[in-house]
Amino acid sequence: LGKMRLKSAYVLAMILDKSGQRHPDIAFALAAGGIVCNQPAYEARGTLLLSEQVDALTAAERHAIRDTASQLGMHFTKMFLGAPNGVDSMLRVIEILKAAEPQFRAEFDWDAPIPELTGEEMRRRGREKSRLTSYPLPPADAPRLPRRVLVADREFFAPHQVGTPGTPWPRLMMSGPALVDAMNGYGWQAEFFPMFGPQLPRWQDYIPAMLERCRQMKPDILVLESGILFQPWLRPLCIAMLRRLRQEQPEMKLVANMHDIWDEHDAEMVLDVAPHLDLLWQSCRPSMSFWQHPSLANKLLHTFCVPNEWCAGTTDRPLAPHISFLMSVQVYNWQRAMWLTAIQHKGIPIQVTLSNHREADGMSASESHLHWMRRLEESTCCLSLLRRAQNSFGKMVVWRSFETFFSGALLVQESTPDMDYHFVAGEHYLEFSSVAELAAVARFIAEHREEAEEIRRRGHAFARERYGDRQLIGYLDYQLYFAHNKG
């Protein structure tokens, strides 16, 4: 079952089931094998048994079940997405996943009534749960020093594809160059150090190359993208580099740009590197419990770390009568296939155009990102789906959230407590937590266009005011040099 040899697993599960054996993996294999072998009776029996057995487990015991559910979700997404009769097949898969994961039962309850939404009620709920985090800027009379900064970030979205035979080159990534441009606009002197590109043949080569560039440049600040820290075999080399920099350039500020901190599994990595850093900069999951660890005190900046104001759009276009979905569906975010299936099944007016940032588009990083932002702007209303980590059923803030605000489009997004740190639901964007609620949001946009337009304008203005390029760098400046009696 773990290797997705579903026909073999199905045969074994039938034998074990007939002999009276009971285990969630047997039920999984019966249900999944029933789909693959077109045996609806065994599919139904496995689904029923799985639901009964999962309900009897403790919360801790469900982690293994989630791993198997993730593997099945990825496997069937690859099999059925875009295939003939793929929606019907995915609906059957969703029933298995609902049996395995109770939270899916509420999200994908086909019989749930569509609630009536009002702008006033959505704003009230959003304000009640808001946890907006405010960061100060440096004092207005403080001198703006031309600090030297080395920004080490990914050059490509999917660096593991670079140079892989038979694999298309991925799209260039804008986060590093955008950060450099924003810092230079702020009055600093920043330089981009591209990581995981074709310049060096092996990942471990970047560490000595980065160390050497720091020795040459002697930057005041090193901003290091966290991708190099996720590799357990690379992390000791990276920590050794940070220690060496502390010895050689003790005044240098060391910042980790935590793009992809998705779930609690990342706690070990974060706590391992934190003692060697001055600041951890991230926005994906500020609600996770391990951020409260004593070793992280005074070391956190929970704001988005990719400047977008340089390519911001407007809210001038009238709001479209439908929502647009412009995201990709990949193995690591297979849960999006469930939502697309549900949208089609329930006839929710959402226009789906799948994107693919894993393939190069022939543009420079800035051209590609600007083109992307204009697509968001032209859509006027974008759906964002948040689950990403393979073995996590939690939801986090993704780049698309901030990009949509800056583009001038109205954001429609899955509910997550992490978003409450950055924006207010109902006031800056519209949220949902089930298929029925998504249908209600679509109805609200169609029937209350002026209120939806006002939410869209407030979200765009708030993003530019709170997370504009100069503000982002100003927050970083304050945290490094003014907070906690520094500098």
Report on this model:
By secondary structure, this protein is an alpha/beta fold. Helices cover 46% and strands 10% of the residues. The protein has a six-stranded parallel β-sheet with strand order 2-1-3-4-5-6, sandwiched between helices. β7, α13 and β8 form a beta-alpha-beta unit. α2 runs parallel beside α4. The longest helix has 19 residues. It starts with 5 loop residues before the first helix and ends in a 6-residue tail after the last helix. The model has no long low-confidence stretch (mean pLDDT 90).
Task: Tell me the layout of helices and strands.
Layout: H1 6-18, H2 24-36, H3 40-55, H4 62-80, H5 86-100, H6 102-107, H7 119-129, E1 148-154, H8 175-186, E2 189-195, H9 206-217, E3 221-225, H10 227-230, H11 235-248, E4 253-257, H12 267-273, E5 279-281, E6 300-301, E7 323-325, H13 335-346, E8 350-352, H14 365-379, E9 381-384, H15 399-407, E10 410-414, E11 430-432, H16 435-447, H17 449-467, H18 469-481
Helix pairs in contact: 1-2, 2-3, 2-4, 2-5, 3-5, 4-5, 5-13, 8-18, 9-11, 14-15, 15-17, 17-18
